Amino acid sequence: MTIIVHHLENSRSQRVLWLLEELELPYEVVRYERDRKTMLAPPELKRVHPLGKAPVIEDEGRVIAETGAIVEYLVEKGDGRLGPPGNRDACLRYRHFLHYAEGSMMPPLFALLVIGRLGILGKPALKPVQGMLDQHLDWLNSELATRPWFACDSFTAADVMMSFPIEASRHRGGLGASRPHLIDWLERLHARPAYGRALAVGGPYAYA
């Protein structure tokens, strides 16, 4: 059965398309555009899942939400490819970064987005929130100084999960040449053929 991906433009759901391309699993895309004033997802997504957010996939009668849960589901469906490495320490890193991407990296990035929209009212919060994000970026850069990918010496689904917060950090979080290992990692991601195929399928994506 073909997996249906409910895909919102310029969103976390681009990672799902990318992983499907990496795993070579059959899928179809239902596209949604953001509201041009609020930049929120359209109400049509609530017909798929009550929270009305993307990504959401449908497969074999199941509706699955949350990017991390979807990634774990797809890795299992793909016979474990790009999943947890066999080495215990690498496996623990894999699980850490799979959840860290949304649990730790996205909150300060989202806060920066809100602060930016507040204009002068958000200015007092900018420095401390940016400082929080800088701590993350410095640590991540040091992690990639010791190995080429986040979990181990080979590319895994943990790298797919980490792509969105790192891309967003480069776009609006101050990530630049001062953290060369992160930039090199990001450039290697963008050079992967499956990444390019996913972009062609998903449509406009501001962070590529």
Uncertain spans? none
How many separate structural domains? 2
Under the CATH scheme, which architecture of the largest domain would be assigned?
A: Up-down Bundle
Strand order of the largest sheet: 2-1-3-4
Rg estimate, integer Å = 17 Å
The helix/strand series, from N terminus to C terminus, equals EHEEEHHHHHH
Global morphology: globular
What oligomeric assembly is this protein in? single chain
GO cellular component, one term: cytoplasm
Keywords: Transferase
GO molecular function, one term: glutathione transferase activity
Domain GST C-terminal: 87-208
Structural overview:
The protein has two domains: 3-82 and 194-202, Glutaredoxin; 88-192, Glutathione S-transferase Yfyf (Class Pi), Chain A, domain 2. 53% of the residues lie in helices and 10% in strands. It contains seven helices and four strands; from the N terminus they run E-H-E-E-E-H-H-H-H-H-H. The chain has helices at 14-23, 67-77, 88-118, 123-143, 157-172, 180-190, 193-202; strands at residues 3-8, 27-32, 56-59, 62-65. It has a four-stranded mixed sheet, with helices on one face. A hairpin with a 2-residue loop joins strand 3 (56-59) and strand 4 (62-65). Helix 1 (14-23) runs parallel beside helix 2.
